[in-house]
Every structure is written in C-alpha cells, then in structure tokens.
Amino acid sequence: MAENQSRPFDHPRFRSWIAVGRACQTMQSALGRALAPLGLKPPHLDVLVNLYRFEGLTQQDLARKLLVGRSNMSMTLPQLEKRGLIARYGDPGDRRVLRLRLTESGRHTAERAMAIQTALIDAVLSPTPSDHCTIIAETMEAMIQRLQEWEKTL
C-alpha cells in the first residue's frame, strides 16, 4: 500500500462500522449475563417478546420478524416449549398451520426478562440525551435498510 494511500481502519466510516459491531456484541454479552438467572439467552428473549406482543404468530412469521432462518426457530422453540414457556396450537382456519403463544409461565418470564432488558437499556442510555438516541436509532434503521438492500444484490 502506498504511503499516501489511506488505510481502511483510518477512515471514520470504518471506525463507525467497528464501533457498531462492538457495541452490538457487548450489548448481547451484557444482556446474556443479565438474563442468565432466568435461564434465558438473548434469542429466547427475542422470541418471548415477539409472542408477548403478537400472540398467534406462525414459526415462519416469527423467523421473519427476528430476521433469522426457520432452522434457528427449529432449535430455539423446542427449548422454550420444553420449559413450558410457549405452546403450539392449530390454526382453526387452516389445520396445516401451527401458531405460537406464551403460556402463563411464559408471559410471567417474558415480563421479568423485559424488565431486566429495560433496566440495562436505562443504565446504558440514560446519560444520552433523547434527541441523540433518536439520531442513533434513525441511523441504525437506515443502515439496516441499506444492508438488506445490498444483500439482495448478492
């Protein structure tokens, strides 16, 4: 590389990309440790929160919302079902379709887990002014959109 040529890691966009990735990894790690007393991991929380908000999703709908493959759901859902946190039930309009719902225990666990997540978010972001949080969210949402569009070109 020529001496007057900039290196990728010297560019502000590269620094931003690395910071976003590290923040995501650090957040997932911290959330994982915070959820451990409930016997949950962040992917379990994602499932529980979505079923808390949108009862009756199919496995495919849930995978789409979480931006994961159905195979990921095939691994996670049986764990939660075995613990009695979720249940599958037949769709009255289409016997081929199974829908998902939280059990009473699942609803209680989801509420406890959401309180843990909210406390972590508050602890980390409370020093950040609300308008900065809005800018961060909008920037990340735009990044997600561009990444999804870029992936379509592959």
Automatic annotation (TrEMBL):
SUPFAM superfamilies assigned to the protein according to its UniProt record, in alphabetical order: Winged helix' DNA-binding domain
One example GO MF annotation: DNA-binding transcription factor activity
Keyword Transcription regulation tagged: yes
Entries under InterPro entries matching the protein: HTH_MarR-typ, Tscrpt_reg_MarR-type_CS, WH-like_DNA-bd_sf, WH_DNA-bd_sf
PROSITE patterns, alphabetized: HTH_MARR_1 (PS01117), HTH_MARR_2 (PS50995)
Gene3D superfamilies: Winged helix-like DNA-binding domain superfamily/Winged helix DNA-binding domain (1.10.10.10)
Residue ranges of coiled coil: none
Signal peptide: none
Keywords: DNA-binding, Transcription, Transcription regulation
Segments forming domain HTH marR-type: 1-149
Pfam families, alphabetized: MarR_2 (PF12802)
Protein name (Swiss-Prot/TrEMBL): MarR family transcriptional regulator
Organism in which the protein naturally occurs: Ectorhizobium quercum
